[in-house]
Amino acid sequence: MSKTTIGTDGKCRCAWCDSAPEFNAYHDTEWGFPVTDDRRLFEKICLEGFQSGLSWRTILTKRENFRAAFEGFDFHKLATFDDKDVERLLQDAGIIRHRGKIEAAINNAKRACEMIEREGSLAAYFWRFEPDADEIAIPQTMSTSPTSIALSKDLKKRGWKFVGPTTVFAFMQAMGLINDHADGCYLRPEIDDIRRSFVRPV
Predict the structure, then answer these.
(1) Is CATH 1.10.340.30 what the domain over 4-197 is classified as, yes or no?
(2) Which residues take part in binding Zn(2+) (predicted)?
(3) What are the boundaries of each domain within the chain?
(4) Tens-place pLDDT, residues 142-163
């Protein structure tokens, strides 16, 4: 099965773009571009947790609702949420009303605040887990990797929740820790160029 598709604009993209009309813009402007902004990193790992068992389209179409409900994923603010906030969020039809996932997002906000104290930034921590280029020989053939397993294990040891190896691998793909654009996708060489000049956080 081909891992690429030709869009109406004539550009060759990853084949998953055909799955939903919202995916082209997400693919072209976000997916796989290296990210160092702590709030964006935190938002993404939370949303990947909410996606567990669901489709990314479900989460993407609700993303603005999630941002409104979770204080724009400002983890300092989210860390102050209590049981009343959990009950309120369970009534919010604009998000995924799953108690475990909501509680995990609040818990992870607290863990993110702790990580800032210890590591300086979320970016400095996550980018320490950037895998070697040869870890993924063929793009889009893996749903976990040795590095995603290691990152998942370390996050869980630090008390994070809903951060299994598959969730973490999807996070790494989206946040540019790896370039998993398909061979032939017009963005793959562009992402390679960006990654070559990208300054890793320390």
Answers:
(1) yes
(2) 14, 27, 181, 185
(3) 4-197
(4) 999 999 999 999 999 999 999 9
